[in-house]
Amino acid sequence: MIFTIGLRELKSLFLSPLAWSILAVVQLILAYLFLGRIEIIQMYQAQLMAMDGAPGVTEIILPDLLGNAAIILLLVVPLLTMRLVAEERRNRTLSLLFSSQLSMTEIVLGKYLGILLFLLVLLVLIALMPLSLLAGARLDFGLLAASFLGLALLLAGFAAVGLFMSTLTQYTTVAAVSTFGALLLFWILDWSGQGFAGGNWLAYLSLFNHYKPFLDGIFDSADAVYHVLLITTFLVLSIHRLDADRLGG
Amino acid sequence: MSDTVLVEIKNLTRFYGTLQAVKDVSFTIRKGEVLGFLGPNGAGKTTTMQIISGNLAPSGGSVTIAGHDLLDDPRAAKSQIGYLPEQPPLYRELTVDEYLDYCAALNRIPRVQRRRARANAKERCGLQDTGRRLIGNLSKGFQQRVGIAQAIIHLPPVVILDEPTVGLDPIQIREIRALIRELGREHGVILSTHILPEVQTTCDHVQIINKGELVLNESIEGLEHHMKSASITVAFRRPPMVEALQQLPGVKTVQAEKDGRMHIFHETGHNPTDDILRLAVEKNWGLYEIRPGRLSLEQVFLELTSAAGDTVTTEAPTITDTLGGRA
C-alpha cells in the first residue's frame, strides 16, 4: 500500500516538467563543478605525482563535489516536496486517501517513499560522474560509499522536513519557502555560539556538522543516528498533522 | 427492499470551534435504499457526509457501517464505503485508466481483479471510450462520472455522493440520476443535494437537515403525505366575497388571487369541498375549477427550514401561501 502511493507520487513527479528540469539543472551545475575539479587535477598532476602521500583522485573531487551538491539540493528539495500534501489539499484529492482503507502512517510513509525514490534517481545520476573516472583511474570506494551514504541521509532528512512543511499548508509556495527556511536554519545553526564553550550544543544540532564527517570518509554512527532521528521526528510530526486535519477542520 | 441495516448513525455531533455544525443527528440506511439528504447551504450536509466517510472525526456520537464501528475499526468500516466528495478527488495529470487503477489499489482490490473492477466501473458510469484520455482534459460531466466510478470501483455496500449533479447539463443530470437509481438497487446510497426534484425522482427516503438538526426523516410516500396540505384551490367566474367562504365550517383562512382563484385552508379533519360545491351551485358563482392543494417539495422544504416556520413565501409569483402551522 505504501508502495502504491510511493510509485504514484514518483510517476506524478515525472509527469510534470518540474522533475525533469530539476534533474537537468542539478546535473548540469554539478557536471560543471565536477569538470572544474578534474581541471585542477590536470593542472597540478605533476606536483601531485611528486608528492609523498598525495591526496587521491577521489579525495580531491568528492568532498568538494558533494559539499556543493548538498547546498544545491538544499535549494532544490523544497521544490520537490512542496506539492506532496499541499497540492492534494488544494485540489481536494486528499479525501480520496482519507476515505480509502489507509492509515495516516501509510499515507505519510507512501508519500515519503515516493520522494525518496526520486532522490535516489538524482543520487545515482550524481554518482555516475565520479564513477565515470573508473575508465582511467582508480577510485577510493570506501570514501565514495561514505560520502554518498552521507548525502543520501542528508537528502532523506531534507525530504522529511519538506514533507512536514507540506502538510502544514495548502499553498505549495508557502511549503517550499518554509522548508527552505527551516533547512537553511538547520544548516547554519553552527554559525552562532562558536566562541563559547556552552554554545556548542547549537552547533551540534547543525545538519552541516553531521554531514561533513561523511565527506571525509568517516562513518560515525552518532551522525547516522542524528539523521535518522531527524527523519523520524518529522515523519511523526507529519502523521500527527494529517490526523489533526481530520480532528480539526 | 431488504432490511439489512448498512449504516447506523447515532447522536452524531460535530463542532467547528464553538460552532456546532451537526447536532445530535441519528438515522439509518438499509440495503437497496437511496437516501436523499436535503438542506440549505451550510446546513451540515457535507459535514455529516465527511464524517460518515471517515474524512472528519465526529465530536460525539457513533457511526456503524455494516457492523463495523468507524472509530474503533476504521479500516473495516471504510472498506464498505465509496465516497464522492463535493469536488471529485481527481488527479488531472493521470488518464482515466491510470486513475481508476490507483483507486482500485488504494481500496485493496487484488491485482488480478483490478482490470475487471476497472472495466466494470467504467461500464456502469459510461466511461468506456475515455480510458486513455487525461482526466484534466475531460468535460465536467465526465469528470463527475470518473468521480462516481472511483466511488463504486470496489463495489462498496454504501455509496456516499455529495451533490453529484452540480454543474452538469440536463442530459448528464438525467444520466447520473439513472445511474444513482441503478446503484440504489444493490447498494445503499446517500445522496446530498439541494435540488428538490432530484430527490423526488431518485430517492426512497428523504431527510432534511437545517442548521445541523434533522427536521424531517421520511420515506417518499410519507413525504407525499406531507405535501397533501390541508388546502383547496378553487376558481369562480363570479367570485363571491371572501367572507362568504370564510364562514364555512372548518375553513381557517381564504386567500384570494387574480382571475377569481382562491386558496382555501381548512382544518385537516374537516374538508369543506361539499359545502363549497353546494354553495357555488346555489348562488351561481360559476365554479370552473376545484382541486386539492398540493405543496411542492420546495414549500415543504422552506416550511421546515425557515426559522419562523409559520410564514412561508416562495419565489413562485402566483402562489403565496400562509400555512397555519405545519402541514
Provide structural commentary.
The complex is a heterodimer of chains A (249) and B (327). In chain A, helix 5 (83-90) packs parallel to helix 8 (141-168). Chain A has one domain. Chain A is mostly helical and 249 residues long. The relative contact order of chain A is 0.13. In chain A, 81% of the residues lie in helices and 0% in strands. Chain A contains 12 helices and no strands. Chain B folds into 2 domains: 5-219, Rossmann fold; 230-293, Alpha-Beta Plaits (2-Layer Sandwich). In chain B, 41% of the residues are buried. The chains are: A mainly alpha (249), B alpha/beta (327). At the A-B interface, helix 1 and helix 6 of A face helix 2 and helix 3 of B.
CATH superfamily of the largest domain in chain B: P-loop containing nucleotide triphosphate hydrolases
Q: Determine the fraction of residues in helical runs of chain A and give it as a percent range.
A: over 70%
- CATH T-level topology of the largest domain in chain B: Rossmann fold
Which segments of chain A are poorly predicted (pLDDT under 50) over 5 or more consecutive residues? none
* Beta fraction of chain B: 25-35%
Number of helices of chain B: 11
The SSE order of chain B reads EEEHEEHEHHHEHEHEEHEHEEHEH
The outline of chain B comes out as elongated
Total strand segments of chain B: 14
What is the typical, i.e. mean, pLDDT of chain B? Answer: 82
What integer is the average pLDDT of chain A?
89
For this structure, the quaternary state is: heterodimer
Rg value of chain B: 24 Å
Instruction: Find the count of extended strands of chain A (DSSP E, 2+ residues).
Output: 0
Which CATH class of the largest domain in chain B applies here? Alpha Beta
Count of helical segments of chain A?
Answer: 12
Element pattern of chain A in H and E? HHHHHHHHHHHH
Structural class of chain A: mainly alpha
